[in-house]
Specification:
CATH architecture of one domain: Sandwich
Shape: globular
Number of strands: 25
Distance between the termini: 45 Å
Radius of gyration: 23 Å
Largest sheet: 9 strands, mixed
Strand order of the largest sheet: 23-22-25-20-19-16-2-21-24
CATH topology of one domain: Immunoglobulin-like
């Protein structure tokens, strides 16, 4: 996979004013005069009468850290930080159904990314059987998270079918890049296996609402790069497999729906997947949410606006999930405010430009410096960063980015109109010469179930003043920057604020 790296920042000329207007309206703004101003002060008008999507929640995956949690005390500490009301209060838990591995053949060399499977060979009986005592630490982590009462949605997802069902005999992809790795005669077996595991969790009382048997099908998975589990599918193969899963859900009368296709791309490939799934009546009848991943579009507001407009025209009424994101490539260390701002920018744009109904980070916990170790730096991509043995772990700045949204915008909140007459905008050029538009200020506003209005503002740049146009009279302001983390900096009458340089602000209005 190739990330588009921004190289050149350019000022926006007069010829791009129409684009600025289109982007602002696409974000839920009110039509009017939208001017470019790189470091301008801002007035944001809240329009509570203009309502958009109803939000269903925030989440993260337990892949692959949960299986490494060593004891109940550690699991409880992490559960409180992520899944309790005193922590982030995440309500969506993505549990990884591992594909297992043959230790004599497996090419993945990071122990954190090798998964246990419930489907194992019983040497005594000479048969492949289910053993639900497996993946014990991950199951205990799920139980600990559920004990705090915030989780209402568990998504069972798999990066690959069981390794015995693959062409390569590996759950980490084919021996060649872009090799479809699910055996042609194992489609039904994969469906049966996944749904049998789903039934196990349902019988335990786990609130499994969705299953996700395919993950980023368009990527190459395998070949020379085998860093994790993955399985490539051609488009028609993915559609066929999802159709079989939909039939299986109906045949077993399971109270779950499909989360699919977990596309790792927000361009044309995603639109084709979405269109074909909706056109299949069986899939559509069992579809809980269209899911995409926001990788490699951290600066591309235009692409997200286009995808959101396409969804509005072609998939009206179908929920949409942004089900995975982390910073790729990870260039900001865990203690950097830029790491938090980048995550918050992506969140704000997914909410406003694409109009997602839920948003989930990739991994809640990552290894210290797993990708790019450097002296004094930790380039983990999770909301917590941990030693391999969990002998120590700590909150990253991305945790605070999630907190600015998840702690104040609960499930059931409705996004409302928010617009500014000044829309700070810059353009970037990518490696292939493509021009992208990004903003130095991003924001999203919601009406919560208890009647509060919440505005989250991401200011990536110089300090500026912010004036709100609203009928609300009282405000609480929570701030994160290089020095402060989730600090309440003001409570009182609504007034003009100063957005500090490179800061993240949540304003709760009553």
């Amino acid at each position: 996979m190739k990330a588009n790296k921004a190289k050149v920042l350019q000022k926006v000329g007069k010829g791009l004013l129409g684009t600025v207007l289109a982007l602002a309206v696409g974000a839920g703004g009110t039509a009017g005069y939208f001017a470019y101003a790189k470091n301008a002060n801002m007035t944001i008008r809240l329009n509570e009468g203009k309502k958009f999507q109803t939000f269903t929640g925030w989440g993260s995956s337990a892949c692959w850290w949960a299986q490494k949690t060593p004891d109940d005390e550690t699991r409880d500490q992490i559960a409180r930080l992520l899944y309790s009301k005193e922590g982030l209060g995440l309500n969506i838990y993505r549990y990884n159904i591992g594909g297992g591995y043959d230790p004599e053949k497996e090419r993945v060399d990071n122990p954190w990314r090798l998964t246990e499977s419930f489907y194992i060979y019983n040497e005594k009986s000479g048969k492949w059987e289910y053993d639900f005592t497996r993946d014990a630490n991950a199951q205990k982590m799920l139980d600990a998270a559920l004990s705090y009462g915030c989780i209402d949605t568990v998504v069972l997802f798999a990066n690959s079918p069981h390794y015995t069902m693959t062409v390569s005999g590996l759950s980490s992809g084919g021996m060649e890049s872009y090799q479809s790795n699910l055996k042609e005669d194992c489609y039904e077996a994969y469906v049966d296996s996944f749904l049998t595991i789903t039934e196990y969790f349902l019988k335990k009382g786990v609130p499994v609402k969705m299953i996700s048997p395919i993950n980023e099908p368009q990527w190459s998975w395998g070949g020379d790069w085998v860093g994790q589990e993955g399985c490539h599918y051609e488009e028609e193969e993915a559609l066929h497999l999802l159709h079989l899963f939909a039939e299986g859900i109906e045949e077993r009368n399971l109270p779950v729906t499909l989360c699919a296709p977990e596309s790792g791309n927000i361009g044309d490939t995603t639109k084709r997947y979405f269109e074909n799934m909706i056109a299949d009546e069986t899939i559509r009848a069992n579809l809980g949410t269209l899911a995409y991943h926001s990788y490699f579009s951290d600066d591309d507001r235009t692409a997200k606006t286009k995808l959101g407009s396409w969804i509005d025209r072609n998939a009206e009424g179908v929920p949409v999930a942004m089900s995975e994101w982390c910073e790729l490539p990870c260039v900001n260390d865990t203690t950097s405010i830029q790491a938090a701002l980048r995550m918050a920018r992506v969140m704000a744009q997914d909410l406003t430009c694409t109009g997602v109904n839920s948003w989930s980070a990739w991994v809640a916990v990552n290894q210290h410096g797993a990708e790019k170790p450097a002296a004094g730096k930790d380039f983990s991509d999770g909301m917590l960063s941990a030693a391999d043995d969990f002998s120590e772990f700590y909150l990253t700045m991305r945790y605070h980015a999630m907190a600015h949204f998840a702690k104040y915008i609960p499930a059931g909140s409705v996004r409302i109109g928010a617009s500014s007459a000044i829309y700070p905008l810059v353009t970037t050029k990518t490696d292939d010469g493509k021009r992208m538009f990004s903003t130095s200020v991003n924001y999203a506003a919601f009406l919560t179930p208890d009647g509060k209005a919440v505005l989250v503002v991401v200011n990536e740049g110089a300090a500026r003043s912010l004036t709100l146009t609203t009928d609300r009279t009282q405000m609480t302001v929570i701030q994160t920057d290089a020095q402060k983390q989730e600090e309440t900096v003001y409570e009182g009458d609504v007034k003009t604020l100063t957005l500090p340089e490179n800061s993240l602000i949540t304003i709760v209005l009553s």
